[in-house]
Amino acid sequence: MASYKLVMYDAGEGARAGIVVGDRVLDVAASSGRREDVSVRSLLDDWDAAKARLASLAANSTGLPNRALSSVRLLAPIDRPGAIYCAGANYKDHVLEMARAQNIAPEPDPHDIPGLQSWHFIKTFGCVTGPGEIVNLPPRSKKVDWEAELVAILGRTAKDVPVEGALEYVAGYTIADDLSARDFTRRTGVPDGSPFKYDWVAHKCFDGSCPIGPWIVPAEDIADPQKLAIELSVSGVVKQKSNTSQMIFTLAEQISHLSGKLTLHPGDVILTGTPAGVGAGRGEFLKAGDEVRVTIEGIGELVNKMA
Question: DSSP alpha helices (H): ranges in the chain?
């Protein structure tokens, strides 16, 4: 079976779904003859059938409408995603790093606490920006941080899914940088014990705070999402260097836990957490002109500049 990567791209005619085969981009709708194949979101809504069509197009790409990959602009690989679930405190090395930064004792392994599950906050589709795009740092924040993350894109409806079969609901994988305004995590002037102390929207949901891309690698091409090298650099200096094996709750556990609380849908996105090396742990934050480069083994590289 020919390998491919699923993209949204713009070659001057608006956003369209494509598959990257080698150094060429095949237009999915023009190749399949199905107008509804014009977007990745519509492909995900019918993923079990769509992935067979895409595999066939990749295997028989000669003569199909295509362009050079270098001639098109890649967009965020999922147009208007559904819910964006972001795992909090989900890497062993990152939890230890943040405990040191806050001068508190490290938390015990959540698996040792009966009934404790992974937890997630939510970003909106307005946070999403694509590969190569410039991210305008919010002027109200002086402490915007980086967070490299493996991302799972769902291709099937999931409700009360057991851990053992949870990965079957994943259509594919991509990369994200979960940008965080650290100086807006806790509200100043509000007592530490107050339920109004934390502001997750100001902290996590500013425009452009979720760069994602450059493409979606089909789930079948990633043998084990828990064995992938992950690295982030800022202007050429490596800040995060870890492996997804460091996750506290695996992706399968996260899907199972989330689907036990609510129904997950095709097009929903799960950011699986970030490893050690974030700026908050070292007192460093992003500034205009910085280039952030996130690399995940088997997927590729996501690059964005700050302004």
Answer: 28-32, 40-45, 47-59, 92-102, 200-204, 251-261
Cα 135 to the center of its chain, rounded Å: 16
- Bridge-based pairing of strands 237-243 and 229-234 is antiparallel
Residue 281 banded pLDDT, cuts 50, 70, 90: confident
Would strands 180-181 and 144-145 be described as parallel, antiparallel, or unpaired?
Answer: antiparallel
Q: Which residues contact 115 (CB under 8 A, 6 or more apart)?
A: none
Confidence of residue 1 (pLDDT cuts 50, 70, 90): low
Please count the CA atoms within 13 angstroms of the CA of 54 that sit on its side-chain side: 31
105 pLDDT more than 90: no
The reported pLDDT for the residue numbered 125 is 93
The residues that bridge with 129 in the sheet, in sequence order, are 211
300 vs 175: CA distance, rounded Å:
8
With a cut of 60, say whether residue 65 has pLDDT above it. Answer: yes
Structure tokens at 72: 């098109």
Q: Provide the 8-state DSSP code for 198.
A: B
Which of 208, 212, 209 is closest to 270 using CA atoms?
Answer: 212
Tokens of residue 20, six digits: 């990257």
Distance from the first to the final alpha carbon of the chain: 42
CA distance 169 to 157: 7
**Could you tell me the domains of the chain?**
5-74 (no CATH), 84-306 (3.90.850.10)
Global pTM reads 0.96
What is the model's pLDDT at position 75? 98
What's the pLDDT score for residue 67? 96
d(CA 261, CA 57) in angstroms, rounded, equals: 37
Question: In the numeric block, which tokens belong to residue 135?
Answer: 């991210």
